[in-house]
Amino acid sequence: MADLERAAAAALPVDIWDFVAGGSGAELTLAANRDALNRVQLVPRLLRDVSRCTTDTVLLGQPARAPMAIAPIAYQRLVHPDGELAAARAARDAGVPFIASTLSSVSIEELAAVGGNLWFQLYWLRDTGHTMDLVRRAEEAGCTGIVLTVDVPWMGRRLRDVRNAFGLPEDVRAANFGELSTAHQRRSSQSAVAVHTSEAFSSAVTWASVDLLRARTALPLALKGILAPEDARQAVGAGVDAIVVSNHGGRQLDGAIPSIDALPAVVPAVDGAVEVLMDSGIRTGTDILKALALGASGVLIGRPLMWGLAMGGQAGAEQVLRLLAEELRDALGLAGCDSVAAAPSVNGARPGRPPAGARPPRTTP
Predict the structure, then answer these.
(1) Distance (Å, rounded) from C-alpha 212 to C-alpha 215?
(2) Per residue in 250-286, pLDDT tens?
(3) Domains of the chain by residue range
(4) Is 146 helix (H, G, I), strand (E, B) or coil?
(5) Where in this protein does the record put region Disordered (predicted)?
(6) Catalytic residue numbers?
(7) In sequence order, what are the residues at sequence separation of 6 or more whose Cβ sits closer than 8 angstroms to the Cβ of residue 144?
(8) What is the pTM of this model?
(9) N or C: which end of the chain has fewer CB within 10 A?
(10) pLDDT tens, 214-244?
(11) What topology is assigned to 2-343 in CATH?
């Protein structure tokens, strides 16, 4: 995967690479996500029969051939002309969900025509009627879940985009909106994409918004961007079906806790009442196992999918998903797990700390 990242960095224009790779502020959380995942250590269980080791699972009530989904990523035609169409086809063929972004450069209806398991990611817009119209379109297109992103009252200050005065080329648009927007108007020392989102997104999205959405749709509903156990418990009370523990890949609040570090407190807070997914920093199959061991039911794959897309369209995206699935199966088997369901028995630990759930050491009187 690191080889693919280097190849994509060399192949893409600098401003587009920075848009994909960058984080907010000093990029402390961007770096912390990887550091935290690297610190997690696994305690393998031995002498178990893993001759039939499978990565099959269920996510939001639908079967998946691996515990992962494609994260909602905006404007994928920036890195390849086929954009989300290629990524959705790769997800379909890999048997994992594809989450279409509100800011997708391909419309919901076109992505639904690809087939496969399609979820729709929703940003709460200033125009609530437009927001609900997107929900209606997702339902009519056959989406099997709605993922409301709750950590973007406005876009985090992404300094790479500011320095590049980043704006969208005219041939890449938010297809669910249709028209050219302020995201295409480059301005000195500003990110045009950030200007557009500040104009389009509501900064007044609240738990009342979640209640309204829950009442509006019968589709499974996930909240993406949860880090605090208190918010996780409130999500349970709001009747959602899943939460995504996420710091937006280090692209929103710089200094936020790494997602993998938030996971061990969030999982017991919901006590099995909702499904818990995780994203931010996942790069390998072993990373996926670490998230599973700490209580997640699956992960979302973000930047690696974009690297594969940049280097080979659908074939490149397929390569990423195949590699992750192979690495996960290898990690599961070596850890003594014959299935995704067995992964929590491989307790995640950090140096100097006992594994989660471990008994305290005996003391001599």
Answers:
(1) 5
(2) 999 999 999 999 999 999 999 999 999 999 999 999 9
(3) 2-343
(4) strand
(5) 343-365
(6) 248
(7) 60, 61, 62, 97, 117, 118, 119, 219, 220
(8) 0.94
(9) C
(10) 999 999 999 999 999 999 999 999 999 999 9
(11) TIM Barrel (3.20.20)
